[in-house]
Write a structure and sequence with these properties.
With 149 residues, this protein is mostly helical. The protein contains three helices and no strands. The protein has one domain.
Length: 149
């Protein structure tokens, strides 16, 4: 016979089961808190992605289209101007053709520069976002605090 009766053994076993259940409950609570924080970060990231996809990118694309159409219009004007000069006076010489090519290259470089400027403005747009959005998206640059759940 052991010093404890059958009822005493059941009480000890019940205490052990209760302690294990309590540890599991604490662990579940810490997981729930972590999932809640993760959900908030995912929502903030989704808001930023949607803003970039549906607002910023269409604006940049429209700007690029506008610049390209203006450059095309300038090319057409220049083409007709030089064509009319050539048709009326036959004075279009090799240097004039060179200027035409140089002008076209200059406009192409201007278009490339405009695209680069538009891409550089993208970080400026994200810097104008609210502090909550910035804080939630700047997770990699912050140190994690030791949290005990």
């Amino acid at each position: 016979m052991t010093g404890l009766g059958r009822g005493g053994q059941q009480i000890i076993k019940s205490k052990e089961v209760y302690a294990k259940a309590l540890e599991t409950l604490v662990e579940l609570a810490s997981f729930q808190t972590a999932f809640t924080i993760l959900d908030e970060v995912i929502r903030a990231t989704n808001r930023r992605v949607n803003a970039i996809e549906h607002v910023i990118m269409p604006r940049l694309e429209n700007t690029i289209k506008y610049i390209m159409s203006e450059l095309d219009e300038m090319d057409r004007e220049e083409f007709f101007r030089y064509d009319s000069i050539e048709a009326y006076s036959c004075l279009l010489t090799v240097p004039n053709r060179l200027k035409k090519v140089q002008g076209k290259k200059k406009r192409e470089n201007t278009a490339k520069a405009a695209v680069e400027v538009a891409q550089e403005r993208l970080p400026a747009v994200t810097s104008s976002m609210s502090e909550d959005d910035q804080a939630s998206t700047n997770l990699l640059s912050t140190k994690d605090e030791d949290v005990i759940f």
